[in-house]
Amino acid sequence: MFKINKKITLNIILFLSIFTLLVAFFIQYILGHKPCNLCIIERIPYILAIVLISFNLMFNIYQKIIFFLLGVIFIAAAAISFYHFGIEQGFFDESLVCDLNPNFEDISREELLKSLKLETISCKDVTFKVLGLSLATINTILSLILSAINIKIFLNYEKN
Q1: Which of the two residues, 107 and 158, has the higher pLDDT score?
Q2: Which of 43, 53, 87, 151 could covalently link to 71 via disulfide, CB atoms 3.0 to 4.6 Å apart?
Q3: Whether the predicted pLDDT of 63 surpasses 80
Q4: Residue 39 is part of a domain; what is its CATH number?
Q5: What is the span of the domain harbouring residue 18?
Q6: Distances (CA, A) of 15 to 53, 88, 144
Q7: Does the structure show a pLDDT above 60 at 62?
Q8: 94-98, 125-129, 134-138, 145-149 — which one is most confidently predicted on average?
């Protein structure tokens, strides 16, 4: 069995997290595809991973805990992405996170007109695909792979 270099693994995960966010921002701001609410929420695990790995690389402490936390973060990311994928495919109904019809009971006419001008994106709408896969699908796969890597390193930490 080969030995896994933990520092290189953290650097690769850091690079992938930064790259993933840059691609998301490129698609949003340069290509003009507006993200839905779940798309924005799916960015949070990558931001957390960047913060945790940067902390570890600066101080070089708590590395085993960092791998555990990254595993948990990417399991949560996979769950959120799979839920988004399920909404896109019609397996699940849109949740309150995706709610496009806010409560307009206590709103003035001017505020109502402003809200109607805002462009809202449904979580069901797939506005961008890569190789025929939605970004939620790709994120589900990537998150599962990253969570498996981190949990495996955590469980075998003393052996490597």
Answers
A1: 158
A2: 151
A3: yes
A4: 1.20.1550
A5: 6-92+107-155
A6: 10, 28, 17
A7: yes
A8: 145-149
- Is 71 part of any domain? yes
pTM of the full structure:
0.82
Residue 101 in domain: no
**Cα 53 from Cα 67, distance rounded (Å):** 9
Cβ within 8 Å of residue 79, ≥6 positions away: none
Residue 98, in any domain of the structure: no
The secondary structure of 122-148 as a DSSP string is -TT----EETTEEHHHHHHHHHHHHHH
CA 96 – CA 60 distance, rounded (Å): 40
- CA–CA distance, 111 with 53 (Å, rounded to integer): 42
Domain membership of residue 134 (yes or no) is: yes
> Can you give the pLDDT at residue 114?
65
Higher per-residue confidence, 96 vs 60 = 60
82: closest CA among 21, 116, 118, 123? 123
Q: Are 136 and 42 in contact (CB under 8 A)?
A: yes
Structural domains of the chain, count: 1
Evaluate whether 88 touches 126 at the Cβ level (below 8 Å): yes
